[in-house]
Amino acid sequence: MPIQLAWNREEDLFLDGYRPAAVVKIRSGLDAGRGAITFWDSIVAGVSQGEAEFAYDMQTNRYQAPAVPDLHPLKIGAWRAPNAHTNAFARESQLDALAAKAGLDPVTLRRRLANDPRLLRLLDLAVETFGWEPAPGPTGRGIGLACGAWRQALVVAVAQVAVDKATGKVRVERFLEAVDVGLVVNPDGARQQVEGAITMCIGQALSEEIRFKGGHILDKNFDTYLLPRFSAIPRIQVVFADSGTTTTQGIGEPPVVPVAAALANAVFDATGARVTHVPFTPERVLEALKRVPAK
Protein backbone atom coordinates (compact mmCIF):
# COMPACT_ATOMS: atom_id res chain seq x y z
CA MET A 1 0.00 0.00 0.00
CA PRO A 2 1.56 3.35 -1.04
CA ILE A 3 2.08 5.88 1.74
CA GLN A 4 2.73 9.59 1.27
CA LEU A 5 4.28 11.75 3.98
CA ALA A 6 3.77 15.49 3.50
CA TRP A 7 5.26 18.04 5.90
CA ASN A 8 3.67 21.43 6.33
CA ARG A 9 5.90 24.51 6.21
CA GLU A 10 6.55 24.60 9.96
CA GLU A 11 7.53 20.93 10.02
CA ASP A 12 9.75 21.38 6.99
CA LEU A 13 11.73 24.24 8.52
CA PHE A 14 11.90 22.44 11.87
CA LEU A 15 12.79 18.91 10.75
CA ASP A 16 14.88 19.39 7.63
CA GLY A 17 18.67 19.79 7.63
CA TYR A 18 20.35 23.17 8.12
CA ARG A 19 23.33 24.77 6.45
CA PRO A 20 26.29 24.25 8.81
CA ALA A 21 27.21 27.19 11.00
CA ALA A 22 30.86 28.21 11.12
CA VAL A 23 33.21 30.73 12.68
CA VAL A 24 36.36 31.83 10.84
CA LYS A 25 39.11 33.92 12.44
CA ILE A 26 41.95 35.32 10.34
CA ARG A 27 45.11 37.15 11.40
CA SER A 28 47.20 38.56 8.58
CA GLY A 29 49.87 41.07 7.65
CA LEU A 30 50.57 43.03 4.49
CA ASP A 31 53.69 44.71 3.14
CA ALA A 32 51.92 47.74 1.70
CA GLY A 33 54.89 48.83 -0.39
CA ARG A 34 55.05 45.55 -2.29
CA GLY A 35 51.41 44.61 -1.89
CA ALA A 36 52.51 41.25 -0.50
CA ILE A 37 50.93 39.16 2.26
CA THR A 38 53.62 38.61 4.90
CA PHE A 39 51.62 36.16 7.00
CA TRP A 40 48.14 34.61 6.99
CA ASP A 41 46.73 32.58 9.88
CA SER A 42 43.22 31.18 9.38
CA ILE A 43 41.25 29.13 11.90
CA VAL A 44 37.96 27.59 10.76
CA ALA A 45 35.51 26.06 13.25
CA GLY A 46 32.38 24.34 12.05
CA VAL A 47 33.38 23.41 8.51
CA SER A 48 36.59 22.19 6.90
CA GLN A 49 39.26 24.39 5.32
CA GLY A 50 38.01 23.49 1.83
CA GLU A 51 39.04 26.09 -0.76
CA ALA A 52 40.55 28.28 2.00
CA GLU A 53 43.93 28.01 0.28
CA PHE A 54 43.22 29.99 -2.86
CA ALA A 55 45.32 31.06 -5.86
CA TYR A 56 47.05 33.87 -3.96
CA ASP A 57 50.76 34.18 -3.24
CA MET A 58 51.25 34.30 0.54
CA GLN A 59 54.76 34.09 1.99
CA THR A 60 53.72 32.41 5.23
CA ASN A 61 50.32 30.88 5.73
CA ARG A 62 48.63 28.46 8.09
CA TYR A 63 45.15 26.97 7.87
CA GLN A 64 43.56 25.13 10.77
CA ALA A 65 40.20 23.39 10.95
CA PRO A 66 40.01 21.89 14.44
CA ALA A 67 37.49 19.14 15.00
CA VAL A 68 34.74 20.28 17.37
CA PRO A 69 32.62 17.33 18.61
CA ASP A 70 28.88 17.99 18.70
CA LEU A 71 29.32 21.54 17.37
CA HIS A 72 26.10 21.09 15.40
CA PRO A 73 23.49 19.54 17.70
CA LEU A 74 20.89 19.70 14.91
CA LYS A 75 20.83 17.91 11.61
CA ILE A 76 22.92 19.69 8.99
CA GLY A 77 23.34 19.14 5.29
CA ALA A 78 25.67 20.19 2.50
CA TRP A 79 24.95 23.62 1.05
CA ARG A 80 26.19 24.30 -2.48
CA ALA A 81 30.00 24.31 -2.69
CA PRO A 82 30.36 23.06 0.90
CA ASN A 83 32.95 24.97 2.95
CA ALA A 84 34.11 27.04 -0.03
CA HIS A 85 31.57 29.85 0.33
CA THR A 86 32.27 30.11 4.08
CA ASN A 87 36.03 30.36 3.62
CA ALA A 88 35.71 32.70 0.64
CA PHE A 89 33.53 35.07 2.67
CA ALA A 90 36.19 35.33 5.37
CA ARG A 91 39.20 35.41 3.04
CA GLU A 92 37.85 37.96 0.55
CA SER A 93 36.52 40.21 3.33
CA GLN A 94 39.95 40.13 4.98
CA LEU A 95 41.70 40.98 1.72
CA ASP A 96 39.53 44.06 1.25
CA ALA A 97 40.22 45.11 4.84
CA LEU A 98 43.96 44.81 4.16
CA ALA A 99 43.64 46.77 0.93
CA ALA A 100 41.79 49.58 2.70
CA LYS A 101 44.36 49.64 5.50
CA ALA A 102 47.18 49.93 2.97
CA GLY A 103 45.40 52.46 0.77
CA LEU A 104 45.28 50.06 -2.18
CA ASP A 105 42.57 49.43 -4.73
CA PRO A 106 41.09 45.96 -3.97
CA VAL A 107 41.61 44.78 -7.56
CA THR A 108 45.21 46.00 -7.58
CA LEU A 109 45.94 44.00 -4.43
CA ARG A 110 44.42 40.84 -5.89
CA ARG A 111 46.36 41.25 -9.13
CA ARG A 112 49.58 41.44 -7.15
CA LEU A 113 48.67 38.34 -5.15
CA ALA A 114 47.18 36.14 -7.88
CA ASN A 115 49.53 33.40 -9.06
CA ASP A 116 47.14 31.71 -11.47
CA PRO A 117 47.01 33.09 -15.05
CA ARG A 118 43.40 31.91 -15.36
CA LEU A 119 42.41 33.97 -12.32
CA LEU A 120 44.21 37.05 -13.64
CA ARG A 121 42.43 36.79 -16.98
CA LEU A 122 39.08 36.27 -15.27
CA LEU A 123 39.69 39.20 -12.94
CA ASP A 124 40.43 41.42 -15.93
CA LEU A 125 37.30 40.19 -17.71
CA ALA A 126 35.12 40.95 -14.68
CA VAL A 127 36.39 44.47 -13.98
CA GLU A 128 36.47 45.48 -17.64
CA THR A 129 32.91 44.25 -18.23
CA PHE A 130 31.62 45.91 -15.07
CA GLY A 131 33.50 49.17 -15.61
CA TRP A 132 35.52 49.09 -12.39
CA GLU A 133 37.18 52.41 -11.50
CA PRO A 134 40.30 51.77 -9.38
CA ALA A 135 40.36 53.54 -6.01
CA PRO A 136 41.15 52.64 -2.39
CA GLY A 137 38.00 51.90 -0.39
CA PRO A 138 35.70 52.99 0.98
CA THR A 139 34.78 55.19 -1.97
CA GLY A 140 31.10 55.69 -1.16
CA ARG A 141 30.10 54.12 -4.49
CA GLY A 142 29.04 50.81 -2.94
CA ILE A 143 30.96 48.49 -5.27
CA GLY A 144 32.65 45.33 -4.02
CA LEU A 145 34.51 42.43 -5.57
CA ALA A 146 35.39 38.89 -4.51
CA CYS A 147 37.01 35.82 -6.05
CA GLY A 148 36.18 32.18 -5.49
CA ALA A 149 36.79 28.65 -6.65
CA TRP A 150 35.10 25.29 -6.57
CA ARG A 151 37.01 22.27 -7.81
CA GLN A 152 38.63 23.49 -11.05
CA ALA A 153 36.16 26.32 -11.70
CA LEU A 154 36.95 29.98 -10.97
CA VAL A 155 34.50 32.83 -10.35
CA VAL A 156 34.89 36.59 -9.88
CA ALA A 157 31.88 38.52 -8.56
CA VAL A 158 31.31 42.28 -8.60
CA ALA A 159 28.36 43.78 -6.70
CA GLN A 160 26.92 47.26 -6.38
CA VAL A 161 24.69 48.10 -3.42
CA ALA A 162 22.94 51.03 -1.80
CA VAL A 163 22.78 51.19 1.99
CA ASP A 164 20.17 53.17 3.92
CA LYS A 165 22.21 54.36 6.90
CA ALA A 166 19.06 55.25 8.82
CA THR A 167 17.51 51.78 8.62
CA GLY A 168 20.48 49.54 7.83
CA LYS A 169 18.69 48.07 4.82
CA VAL A 170 20.91 46.93 1.95
CA ARG A 171 19.58 47.03 -1.61
CA VAL A 172 21.51 45.22 -4.33
CA GLU A 173 21.48 47.34 -7.49
CA ARG A 174 23.71 45.39 -9.84
CA PHE A 175 25.56 42.08 -9.81
CA LEU A 176 28.04 40.61 -12.27
CA GLU A 177 29.82 37.28 -12.29
CA ALA A 178 32.64 36.26 -14.58
CA VAL A 179 32.89 32.48 -14.65
CA ASP A 180 35.54 30.08 -15.97
CA VAL A 181 34.18 26.53 -16.11
CA GLY A 182 36.03 25.50 -19.24
CA LEU A 183 33.98 24.66 -22.30
CA VAL A 184 30.39 25.89 -21.90
CA VAL A 185 28.22 23.37 -23.75
CA ASN A 186 24.83 25.04 -23.17
CA PRO A 187 25.33 28.82 -22.73
CA ASP A 188 21.68 29.61 -21.97
CA GLY A 189 21.37 26.83 -19.40
CA ALA A 190 24.70 27.74 -17.82
CA ARG A 191 23.76 31.41 -17.56
CA GLN A 192 20.46 30.51 -15.90
CA GLN A 193 22.31 28.34 -13.37
CA VAL A 194 24.53 31.30 -12.46
CA GLU A 195 21.59 33.69 -12.24
CA GLY A 196 19.76 31.26 -9.96
CA ALA A 197 22.79 30.81 -7.73
CA ILE A 198 23.23 34.57 -7.35
CA THR A 199 19.53 35.00 -6.54
CA MET A 200 19.72 32.27 -3.90
CA CYS A 201 22.83 33.80 -2.35
CA ILE A 202 21.32 37.27 -2.13
CA GLY A 203 18.79 35.75 0.24
CA GLN A 204 21.51 33.87 2.12
CA ALA A 205 23.61 37.02 2.49
CA LEU A 206 20.93 39.56 3.35
CA SER A 207 17.87 38.00 4.97
CA GLU A 208 17.57 34.21 5.32
CA GLU A 209 18.27 33.02 8.87
CA ILE A 210 17.10 30.37 11.31
CA ARG A 211 17.15 31.75 14.86
CA PHE A 212 16.99 29.81 18.11
CA LYS A 213 15.92 30.70 21.62
CA GLY A 214 16.03 28.32 24.56
CA GLY A 215 16.33 25.33 22.28
CA HIS A 216 13.33 26.40 20.21
CA ILE A 217 13.40 27.38 16.55
CA LEU A 218 11.83 30.80 16.04
CA ASP A 219 11.67 30.90 12.26
CA LYS A 220 9.20 28.27 11.07
CA ASN A 221 7.53 30.06 8.18
CA PHE A 222 8.12 32.67 5.53
CA ASP A 223 6.77 35.51 7.66
CA THR A 224 10.09 35.56 9.56
CA TYR A 225 12.33 33.39 7.37
CA LEU A 226 12.66 36.05 4.71
CA LEU A 227 13.22 34.90 1.15
CA PRO A 228 14.14 37.66 -1.31
CA ARG A 229 11.22 39.01 -3.29
CA PHE A 230 11.41 39.72 -7.01
CA SER A 231 11.87 43.39 -6.17
CA ALA A 232 15.07 42.55 -4.27
CA ILE A 233 16.78 40.92 -7.25
CA PRO A 234 18.99 43.31 -9.22
CA ARG A 235 20.14 43.37 -12.81
CA ILE A 236 22.37 40.31 -13.12
CA GLN A 237 25.07 40.01 -15.77
CA VAL A 238 26.94 36.77 -16.47
CA VAL A 239 30.04 36.46 -18.66
CA PHE A 240 31.94 33.26 -19.42
CA ALA A 241 35.66 33.17 -20.00
CA ASP A 242 36.92 31.77 -23.28
CA SER A 243 39.40 29.37 -21.74
CA GLY A 244 40.32 27.68 -25.00
CA THR A 245 39.83 24.21 -23.56
CA THR A 246 37.53 21.31 -24.31
CA THR A 247 37.35 20.37 -20.63
CA THR A 248 34.08 21.11 -18.85
CA GLN A 249 33.34 21.77 -15.18
CA GLY A 250 30.12 21.77 -13.19
CA ILE A 251 28.17 25.04 -13.13
CA GLY A 252 25.67 24.49 -10.30
CA GLU A 253 27.99 25.13 -7.35
CA PRO A 254 30.85 27.52 -8.26
CA PRO A 255 28.71 30.69 -8.67
CA VAL A 256 27.63 30.70 -5.00
CA VAL A 257 31.17 30.92 -3.62
CA PRO A 258 32.01 34.66 -3.83
CA VAL A 259 28.53 36.22 -3.60
CA ALA A 260 28.33 37.03 0.13
CA ALA A 261 31.90 38.34 0.15
CA ALA A 262 31.27 40.64 -2.81
CA LEU A 263 28.16 42.02 -1.10
CA ALA A 264 30.01 42.54 2.20
CA ASN A 265 32.81 44.36 0.39
CA ALA A 266 30.23 46.50 -1.42
CA VAL A 267 28.62 47.45 1.91
CA PHE A 268 32.06 48.44 3.19
CA ASP A 269 32.75 50.50 0.08
CA ALA A 270 29.42 52.29 0.50
CA THR A 271 29.69 53.03 4.22
CA GLY A 272 33.06 52.09 5.68
CA ALA A 273 31.26 49.52 7.85
CA ARG A 274 32.52 45.94 7.86
CA VAL A 275 29.79 43.32 8.31
CA THR A 276 31.17 39.95 9.38
CA HIS A 277 28.02 38.03 10.32
CA VAL A 278 25.82 36.50 7.62
CA PRO A 279 23.07 37.47 6.92
CA PHE A 280 23.58 41.24 6.87
CA THR A 281 20.28 42.09 8.49
CA PRO A 282 19.43 45.77 9.01
CA GLU A 283 20.17 45.35 12.73
CA ARG A 284 23.66 44.00 12.04
CA VAL A 285 24.38 46.70 9.48
CA LEU A 286 23.36 49.39 11.97
CA GLU A 287 25.66 47.84 14.59
CA ALA A 288 28.51 47.83 12.06
CA LEU A 289 27.84 51.47 11.22
CA LYS A 290 28.29 52.37 14.88
CA ARG A 291 31.86 51.01 14.70
CA VAL A 292 32.87 53.22 11.76
CA PRO A 293 35.49 55.73 12.99
CA ALA A 294 34.37 59.33 12.95
CA LYS A 295 36.04 61.42 10.26
UniProtKB/TrEMBL annotation:
<dbReference type="GO" id="GO:0016491">
    <property type="term" value="F:oxidoreductase activity"/>
</dbReference>
<dbReference type="InterPro" id="IPR037165">
    <property type="entry name" value="AldOxase/xan_DH_Mopterin-bd_sf"/>
</dbReference>
<dbReference type="Pfam" id="PF20256">
    <property type="entry name" value="MoCoBD_2"/>
</dbReference>
<protein>
    <submittedName>
        <fullName>Xanthine dehydrogenase family protein molybdopterin-binding subunit</fullName>
    </submittedName>
</protein>
<dbReference type="InterPro" id="IPR052516">
    <property type="entry name" value="N-heterocyclic_Hydroxylase"/>
</dbReference>
<dbReference type="InterPro" id="IPR046867">
    <property type="entry name" value="AldOxase/xan_DH_MoCoBD2"/>
</dbReference>
<feature type="domain" description="Aldehyde oxidase/xanthine dehydrogenase second molybdopterin binding">
    <location>
        <begin position="156"/>
        <end position="234"/>
    </location>
</feature>
